[in-house]
Every structure is written in C-alpha cells, then in structure tokens.
Amino acid sequence: MAxxxxxxxxxxxxxxxxxxASGVIETWRHYAQQRPDEIGKxxxxxxxxxxxxxxxxxxxxxxxxxAIAALAHTPGAVFGSCRYKLSDPAKDRSQYERxxxxxxxxxxxxxxxxxxxxxxxxxxxxxxxxxxMNYPIHCIGIPKTIDNDLVETDCCPGFxxxxxxxxxxxxxxxxxxxxxAGTSTRVFVMEVMGRHVGWLTAAASLAAEAGGPPILLLLxxxxxxxxxxxxxxxxxxxxxxxxxxAVSEGLRDGNDRLLGxxxxxxxxxxxxxxxxxxxxxxxxxxxxxxxxxxxxxxxxQRSARHxxxxxxxxxxxxxxxxxxxxxxxxxxGIMMTVVRHAEHPYSWEIxxxxxxxxxxREKMLPREFISDDGFGVSEACKRxxxxxxDGEEYPPYRNGLPDYVRFKNVMVEPKLSPFVP
Amino acid sequence: MAxxxxxxxxxxxxxxxxxxASGVIETWRHYAQQRPDEIGKxxxxxxxxxxxxxxxxxxxxxxxxxAIAALAHTPGAVFGSCRYKLSDPAKDRSQYERxxxxxxxxxxxxxxxxxxxxxxxxxxxxxxxxxxMNYPIHCIGIPKTIDNDLVETDCCPGFxxxxxxxxxxxxxxxxxxxxxAGTSTRVFVMEVMGRHVGWLTAAASLAAEAGGPPILLLLxxxxxxxxxxxxxxxxxxxxxxxxxxAVSEGLRDGNDRLLGxxxxxxxxxxxxxxxxxxxxxxxxxxxxxxxxxxxxxxxxQRSARHxxxxxxxxxxxxxxxxxxxxxxxxxxGIMMTVVRHAEHPYSWEIxxxxxxxxxxREKMLPREFISDDGFGVSEACKRxxxxxxDGEEYPPYRNGLPDYVRFKNVMVEPKLSPFVP
Lengths: 421, 421
Known about the structure:
The structure is a homodimer.
Chain A: E1 3-9, H1 17-34, E2 39-45, H2 49-53, E3 57-59, H3 65-71, H4 94-105, E4 108-115, H5 117-132, E5 138-143, H6 159-180, E6 187-192, H7 199-203, E7 215-218, H8 226-240, E8 243-248, H9 276-288, E9 292-295, H10 300-303, H11 310-328, E10 334-343, E11 346-354, H12 355-358, H13 379-385, E12 397-398, E13 401-402
Parallel strand pairs in A: 1-2, 1-4, 4-5, 5-10, 6-8, 6-9, 7-8
Antiparallel strand pairs in A: 2-3, 10-11, 12-13
Helix pairs in contact in A: 1-3, 1-11, 4-5
C-alpha cells in the first residue's frame, strides 16, 4: 500500500523556507507518479507540528504544479509555522504518542521537518519513539534559520538572504547618512535579529566600501563595553564625518545579561518589541551629542524575498529536494546539510549529518571570525559570508509588486477524536 | 564667455535624486560639447546650498562619463545635501547677497536646485534678488521628495520608489505574520515617514492581496481615534487571524497635536528617533493582549535604490534632463513637473510650473483619496498610486551587493574670503 508523507515548517520564517517546501513537494510528486503503489500523498501541517497534534493536515495534491513552482519565490511559510516545543518525552510521552497515532491514522511513512535546532531534536525524538513503538517512519530534517546557528552544516538556508538584506540595507543607509552628515544625522544604528549568535549582524560589515566609513558591529559574542564603544563612535565621526552601527538584538553585558532584559529598556517598551537599537542610539546622542537615527527592520529582514540571494535559494531548494531523495533511498534520522568545497569560486553540494549530532546544539560566531577590537569581523569571516549573499533571485512582479502565490490549503478529513495540545 | 552652472541637492535624500543629478550633468555635458563658447562647467554644492554659501564647489568635470552614468543607479546624494533654510530676505538679505557674490565670482549663469517646497522658495528668491541686483541667472527647480507633497506636479520624483519600498515591505511582512499568527505575533505595525502628509503611508495599502488580510492605515490627515482603531484591530484579528498596520510618523490627535510630540512618547525616546510605531504597538498589546511586533524602516525607505520603481527613475532622470533643456531655451523661475495624461496604460510627460505657484505650498492626501472610515484609501487613490510603483529598475550588483559609484568630488579653488553661514 502507498505510504504518505508529512511535511511541517517550524519556527520563525525565512525568505526561502517555501523554496524548500517547493523542492520537497515537486520531488515527492515525481516519485509519486513513478511509483504510485509505494508513494502516496504529501500532507503538510497547518501551523507546523501543531497541525500533526491537532490532526489539521493540508492535502498538497490540491495545489497545481504551477502553484508549487511559484511557491519557490514566495516568502513566509505557506502552510503556517509555529513556535511550539513538544514536552520532554522523559517526563511526558503523550504528545509524541499522539503524533504517532496521527501518522498511523493517515498512513504516514515519511516525516520531513523544516526548522532549526529545536526542530531537529523533535525529529530525532519522533524517530526514536516511533522505533520503540514499532511504527516504521523515515524522519528527515531540513535545515532552516536566518540565525545560521545549526552545527554540521556550512550554513543554514534562510541566512544568506537575510544577510543580503542586512548588508544591502546598511549600504544604502550609509549613502543616506554620508549625504546628510554635514548638517544632520551623523550616527545611524540598525538593530539586527539573532538572539544568541552574531552571524546576521556580522553580515552588515559587508556593506562597507573603499573610501567610505567603516561599519561598527555590536555582536552578542562580545560583551558590551560602553566606554570603548563610545570612543570608537567618536573617533569614527571625527575621521569619516559619520558612523554606522549594526547592533544585535542579543547584545549582552559583561555578566552575560541581555541588555534588552536588564530593565534599562523598560522605558522603551517590552524587549520583545525591539529596543536595543533605541538604547544604543540614545546612548550616543546623550554622551556625544550627535544627531542619531535608528532603524528596526524586524520581520522585514527575514521575509525580504524580493532580495533573496541565489546561493541561498539554491541551498533551500536543494535541501528540500535531497531530503525526499534520501527518504526514497531509505535514509532516516538525518538532517540535510550544505557542504562547502571551495570559497572562490564558490562550490558546494548537499550532504547529510545524523540528527543526534545537530539537535539542540548552537554554532556561535567563532573567535577567529571576530576582529581584535570586537567591533568588526575578520577577513576570514567576510570570505565565509560573501558567497552566501551572491546572486539576485528576483521574484516575478505584477503591477509593481512581487507576485506571491496563495495556496488553497485544503484540509484532510480528520479520522481521530480531537486533541488539545 | 562661457557661463557655468551650479547644481545643488537639498533636504532628505531619495533613492533616485542622483538619477536627476545624472540627467542634469549628462545633458549639460552634451551642450557644453556642442557650444563650448557659451556653456562652461557644471559645479555642484558640497552639502547642498551650504556649498554655495561657503564657496565649497565641486567641479563635476573630473568625473568620467561612466561615473555619471553609474550615478543614475546610486542612492543618497552624491554631492551631499543639507537641511538648511536661508534667512528671510525681508529681514536679512546677506545670505542671498553672498550667494550672488559666489555665483558672480565663478561665472555661474544657471542655478539648478533639486529639492522640495522649501527649496523652490529659495530658488524663487535667488531669481528675484539676482534680478534686483542686475545679475543674470537662470533659476530652475527640480522636484524631489519622498513625501509627494509638492503642488503643480502630478507626483514627486523619489516618492514612487519609497512607495514601492513601503508596499513591498508590508506585503512581505504580511506573509510572515500570516504564517505565525496561530501561535505567535498577530499584529504588526510599520512606522512610515511623512511628517505632514499621508501619501507614503497610503502606499502600504497596495500590499493587500485577494484572500489576505486588509492593511489598516493611520494617516496624518485623519485625527487618531483610539477607540475606533482598537475596535478595527480586534475585528480584523477575529476575521483574518492577524492585522497589519501602517502608521505615519505624523499621526495627530483631535487637537492637531503630533502624537509623537505630546509627551506620551517620552518613555520611548525623543520623537526624532521614531516612536509612534512603538506607541501603537504598545497600545494594541496593552488593550487587546495580542503579541505585537513593530518595524521602523527609517532611512531604509528613502535610500532603497535596490527597489527603485522604473516610473520613478524615469521621472527623476527626466526632470533633471529637461531642466537643462529649459535653461538652454532661456527659461527661468520655473520648476519641472510630471504631467499625467492617462492612468491605464499610464502615460506622462515632463512639464513646467512657475516657482511662485509651488514655493511653500503643501499637497495633502485629498479627502476623496481616503476611505470613509479613515483607516484606508479609496480605489481612486490606488489607481493614482499604482503606476508610480511600476517596473523594477535594478542596480547592477557585484559580489552580491549593489555596485554604487563613489565620486572624487574635486573641489574648486575658492576665490573669495570665507563666509560663516
């Protein structure tokens, strides 16, 4: 009997996670046509793994091949995503047992989970508990995160496009500030996502141009030193008339406390709303007296499909396609990876790593990628980053705006009694 | 004897003001080659009109034709701009007399001023005072502003690209919020520039898609009604699971006070730093309990050359080129305009208007362009806006980033004693 697949998107979205979804679905369709006796339908979870718990499954066979192709250039997460961590099975296995129950009811023999390190942990546990329960299923992780913090892979699909957004935005803001510095704003601060790691903030350094001002970075890996920072800003304005700063939302003080959580920021609203950018701007204005502007791109940086990098797009599509190929070869318990063969010219291929090696681990910006003074990155870091931003993978436009696809998202008839997670 | 020209960029920059500069310079070069006995050099003001007062003139002949061509796709203001309003000549004519003195010292017979309504007032006064002083000069205004608030022109170069940025950013953020609304952020707020007029905020409405949520607008032309707003947000989340809001930095209360200036916002920092977006986000979170995110694109929206609209680019280039053509025909005391002939298919041409008709006037969003409930725009407004965003005028890229030109900006030797404005 033909077995079905379950695909879910997890955590914060990226500009290219739907390119992975598109790669999974088109490859699955290819095999479903070739081997209809073995390969059934591909279902997707409504709002990620929650859809499996609540038995809200989307039947992707209702979407046309054209819609699946257009999905590759559409940002967001077309089936919905969620921030939801399953309970620890050592304490409570009921959620995992429910997942297996839903999978069994719908003949699901393949589980593709598209997310970050939490999601790889979930995929690993599903594979382990399914084995204990004698339920045959292939579990494959598909990496995704703008944070670029997964181990075992050279980079994470989603990061390259967010990095391109950050670098382009900073380069353009730099031209604005340089033009006005004579009589107006001298210091510009941009707050960048990445709660624990500075990869995305590091990408702002690529905005610098020969003959222009440097870009100062405030990385979460480097404890914030107010005095050293203010001295650097002052020196930069003296030399270049202006100063550009990229600050990570995860900036920490010497006691490893998030500066957004210390209470300094209460006046600016809840930390969740962003605020370290305002805090840094206010600090510079107060201590140095310069006119300061700050920007908070927030979701724009992770949904900017209009500025996706071709490298990142190909990675995202590749890990999606190869995940299905691996499943067809009988593989399970692995995450797809990107393997770098050479930097210049850049060459890469898709590889795999055991889920055990990936789950719940985090890749910080290594010390050798950070400049000696802590306010920038090394040349090695720039060489690592640059190919990930390469190429402009523009979406089609209609009436001056990107033409993104909307799915029907037809739900599968539930077979089980309701479950409240 | 050949007479020279002075060109200056004024006020906040746009993604395409350098396309106007490029149009001015290439057309000037054309005439300078054809009529070397009449047409001399084109000088540009360092930091705008300030460069004329301080005699800091840039000799543009040092830039190659390739650099002038590349200028057309480079954001910012390549010669520098400023926010500086000359003193009222009815009280103090010394600044205007200094301008004429500098012009006379450098044989400047043409004054091209690229800016908004303040700048058109300056250009008008220069032409009047020069006439009184028997100094022959042709004064031509070249419109520029992301605010779109100049009268006598159908639209303002710079607006279309900023509008495209705002609409694209909101469309992409919408996909992000829709994907996560099941368990995370339900309300997203984006703060948009436009201190007095809502044109740019109105452009966010174009982000809406059939089958998706509406975009709520908070326009400076509509006094903020907290109760009605909160009711609308609540209804929108109930129906669409999420709500997207574009708020103008110029939002006002019923007493015409800027909400960013009332003291409500002190806790979020100085109004100059942005803050109405945070205030609206906090209001929704506090009264409705939803998770809210907010974005402050700040300078990114006016320097996003990577997302320039072709219509806007052609307008900007066209007003620059035609300004020189008009000067060659002996015209003075005019501003170049964009004239709309038809909406669909869009057709237009460059026109002119007297500087007197333009100076110091401001075009608000007309009542018939605002929806009855005040939280959106009419279909007529959308029909007006859409052609202005049309076409993608991409810059060239190198190593994954836009390849913007840097000028040498070689200064002309001063001939006069220093002047401190």
